[in-house]
């Protein structure tokens, strides 16, 4: 049985554990003993390791034939220091991993003016967060070339699920952009992203990038309207971009500054994914039904 090492077993990857533990001997990093105990209860062997503490990473070398990396970068800077430390640790093993899958973000593309975006489009991140992710991708690609590890990168857009909806923003009556200034946004249900990542461990092509997005083609304001209607909440007010700048924080504004439509044919052709929630409408409807 192949050994799978998970780096960053958070909400998304945790959803894939029942599938993964049936097929692999699964190890996962845990920053605390409590998290380690939770992982062990789910059939995972925990490894106490922290990407912010390089001395704790020595045990990662050589553990996994396969690696699933979903840990986010640190909160500042333009380089992903965590991924750099991980690569340094993996490189110390006598035998490198056969495959590595990294969950990145579609934010590496930057603003595309609403254009359709395929995986061959050059990255032009406009935020520090996007630049850190682009740096991680580049570091992992170089590692793959040096070590012979087949590296596949998943670029995920906005992740949602029943417990990851913007209900608090709707309840605060946070505004969204007026229709004439609104931006195209992209989504993927957390369960579908978990399934895509699991399939990429065996089907992802070496050096390949995949847009891990659903089939929806909608603007951000329409998404908020959809959620509001499903949960019987008032639709958010529509304001100009200038007014939004005075009422929202920097993080929310950064998402309103980027518009693109992700082409997702590659995950279907090459990974063979059949989305459980092919549109945001189907995912939100399922979440509302659980209420």
> Largest sheet, order of strands side by side?
3-2-1-4-5-7-12
> What kind of sheet is the major sheet?
7 strands, parallel
Q: Please count the beta strands (DSSP E, at least 2 residues each).
A: 15
- Envelope shape: globular
CATH class of the domain at 3-160 and 187-213: Alpha Beta
Terminal residue distance: 40 Å
Kindly estimate the percentage of residues that lie in beta strands according to DSSP: 15-25%
The CATH homologous superfamily of the domain at 3-160 and 187-213 is called: NAD(P)-binding Rossmann-like Domain
Low-confidence stretches: none
Please state the second-level CATH architecture of the domain at 3-160 and 187-213: 3-Layer(aba) Sandwich
User: Treating each run of at least 4 consecutive H or I residues as one helix, how many helices?
Assistant: 11
What is the C-alpha radius of gyration, as a whole number of Å? 19 Å
Oligomer: single chain
What name does CATH use for the topology of the domain at 3-160 and 187-213?
Rossmann fold
Would you list the SSEs in sequence order as H and E? EHEHEEHEEHEEHEEEHEEHEHHEHH
Structural class: alpha/beta
**Helicity range of the residues?**
25-40%
- Mean of all residue-level pLDDT scores: 96
